[in-house]
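quick one: magnesium ion bound model?
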Amino acid sequence: MNKSDQLYLIKLGEIVLKGENRNFFERKLRQNIKKKLSAFSPKFVTQKGRLFLRVSDCQEKVVSTALSTTFGIQGFSPALSVNKSIDEILQAVLKLMSSTPKEKWNTTFKINSRRADKSFPLSSYEICCQAGDAILSAYPGIKVNVHNPDTTISIELRDRAYVYITSEKGPGGLPVGCAGKGLLLLSGGIDSPVAGYRMARRGLRQDAVYFHTYPYTSDEALDKVKELAAAISEYIPEMSLYVVPFTDVQLEINRNSRDEERTLLMRYAMVKIANIIASKTYAKSLITGESLSQVASQTLESLILTDSASDIIIFRPLIGLDKEEIISTAKKIGTYEISILPYEDCCTIFSPEHPMVKPEKEKLTEVYQKIELDALIQEAVEITIRTGIKMDLYKKGVQN
Ligand code: ATP
Ligand code: MG
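yep, here:
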């Protein structure tokens, strides 16, 4: 083993409930971790309910960022792997304790022990007692607290003995890529990045599409969307952002419709274009940040209308959430601060003062069809720009 190698024990989440196709989910998870940490020669060993990862020359915070943003992971910890001898286990326990911050040495601790290998001569209870005694002798200021300890040291007996300190939390969910592919309609607002995150958590791989109405929406608005895409791509590996020049379509809609119809017709056109891009990129679903009754274009009638523009399923994972709940997730995943930057996605000339709340599907569809947008839409798709999203953090040597 290389001196700079570090072992991590990864606890799997919902994957452990899978039956025959569990290998498929585990393989996806390993691939997703590998994509992020490929510069650090990742090696894996899978065991029941656990995945062991070994990396070399990699800072702990880089691994921690990678694993805490990889769906499928319930928790993870740096671990030591030693021979199944009680002496080596006790040494590892003391070594881990000495690596904790000094303040912890005067607080409380607990030992957890699991014996997947039942042939080990000591019972779990005996292992805990011996490890607990070793710590109490080495750290006179520390006390045992089995209910609410400051530090928990776990010992697992498997093919070898694994010793680790309380695990960091993973994001849960299922590995991205195990549930097919979608196209996220990503605006500069608070909702859509959260929608992408939530679908990724159920295993959906995604690209994103942004409709840019330059110069009515600024370059800063586009930069903001790129930043949002970069932030969520931590969770959604290998995401591309498609930027659709939307101005001509939007202006044509404006010229040929009444004020109150505009927002819905614009949404309708967005969904039509998103369908074309989805089919070119093998995405079989769309995702939006819509939430029932949030605004006029998200009433039941409006959603029925926009649904009818799509040949493929539209996922709306925020449909039953209120704004506070959405904001709290946005803060947790680091998109909130970007979303509230001042560059508005919507420009006042495109937002009627009194948008339609209860559109009649047939009537609005008829208005839409009369506008004859086909050629403009085709052109917009042709000049759509695809941007890849770089993940510099995981390059060797740029980890500060
Ligand atoms: P967000 O919903 O992202 O916070 P918002 O609330 O301002 O932004 P709405 O006007 O409510 O956006 O739009 C509803 C949904 O339509 C968005 O969540 C997003 O999925 C999609 N959408 C709106 N504008 C755009 C755009 N310019 N590009 C891509 N998708 C968009
Ligand atoms: Mg919204």
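Residues 189, 191, 289, 294 surround magnesium ion (ligand 2) (CB under 6 Å).
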